[in-house]
Amino acid sequence: MARPRKPEDPDKYQPCDRCGKCYWPAAWWPEGLICGYCYQAAKRTTGRCACGHDGVLPGIIDGAPACRSCSDIILNVDCVECGAETELYRGGSCLRCILKYTATDLLRSPDTGEVDPKLTVIVEALGAMERPNSGLTWIQQKHVKRFLKQLAAQEETTHEAIDTLPAGRTTNYVRALLVEHGVLPARDELLARFDRWALEKQERVIGSEQQTVIDQFRRWGLLRHLRSSSPISNSAFLRAKQSFTVAIEFSNWLTLERGLTVTQFTQHELDAWQAGGPSTREHVYRFIRWAIATRIVPADLTVIPHRRGTAARLDAQSQTEAVDQVVYTGDLTDRDRLAAILIIVFGQRTEKICKLTWREMIVTDTDVTVRLGSYPITLPPPLDGPVRALASDNVHGQTAAHPNSPWVFRGYTPGNHIDPAHLRLRLKPLFAALAARLGTLTELSKTTPVAILAETLGYHPATLEAHARVGATAFAEYIALRDQPSTDADPWR
């Protein structure tokens, strides 16, 4: 954020011959006195002069920016390192050269004093940023400097070596940067994250026999399934975490409350545990079914599964209010507005929204279309506004994270789309994403044939059939109420 300007001081300073304001003088140019603010702005003005020169255009001729030669302005904007004509930062060097020098210095091996060839890609990526000031701001943070030094001290640059460094956003960012630029092979980060999390979580298990069973469940009941469907979705990642957490809680409850192991309990203990806590204990279903399949527990055990289809749905009135707020107010960013439209108008999952690429979004001078299923959907005004704004905005493309990213919803880590959980959190003040999506699908299934709706929105017909049944039930209740014998107080009269 730019610092606010100081108040003018006409008693102390003469008016600037460029802006007419009374600020401290910075230079005398052919046009007259130039204040400090105009001087800084002139150094940062770039483009092509009328003479054909590309570079810094500090002068003004006939209202248009002009180069130093045409405007007879003496100004040092030539970098002593690379020779580029740009604003200088320190010691006659430009921002880009200072950024590359800083990165190189931090990534030198403490043993050899040289930069690992694999890590030079970080220097090159940062140096190629359209806005090097953003990279310099990032790399000058203490925790970033500390991490880069730790990375340079590793014997080799691999995923396993980076896993030994402190976890955090900086670690994730640099790892993704190395993957994006081909230094490290791509891997399923959610899968790796679950594996690391589960190993730490497993340490809470009480008893050696319990630890053995829980470890087997982690490896063969969860990780094996996740690997078979890699890359895993955010929802699968969260379900696996909850199943593992509940399995550990059940195991420890058996040990502490009943003095039993997971190979000794009966139906009585299972029922008592499920009845004695919140509904999340129903997630033990996955652990029990795995334990039965592996013959760790008797096959006649039964468990109440987690109930599905009980989530709240946004009613029609709330949906209308949400649409009005999304489309006709300026409370949201273009990115959040587009995501909200895809949920509240088209009933899309946040996981699918986050994975949209510009191949599914086609923007022309006349139309904006999005392909969610088999057929493209034309977005009429004002629904097309956020798409046009995002298509013309290259903020993320100016960093090292997304040099050629296809994602519509670019994330904070290089090469990745935005995290669905983060998107849901951003929309939470407006509506709950799940409730809004379910409510929208229920309303749409009332007016559109399921087969057409499924192909257009990219859903399985059986899924929309379930929403249609919910909508039909609600409509049947309305008809029943409408057909009741009338009274003087009947609101339908």
Overview of this structure, please?
The chain has 493 residues and is mostly helical. The protein folds into four domains: 51 residues, no CATH class; 92 residues; 104 residues; 164 residues, hpI Integrase, Chain A. Helices cover 48% and strands 7% of the residues. It has 21 helices and eleven strands. The chain has a three-stranded antiparallel sheet, with helices on one face. A two-stranded antiparallel sheet has the order 1-2. A two-stranded antiparallel ribbon has the order 3-4. A hairpin with a 2-residue loop joins strand 7 and strand 8. The longest helix has 25 residues.
Measure the end-to-end span: 60 Å
- Biggest sheet: strand arrangement: 9-10-11
What class, by secondary structure content?
mainly alpha
CATH topology of the largest domain: hpI Integrase, Chain A
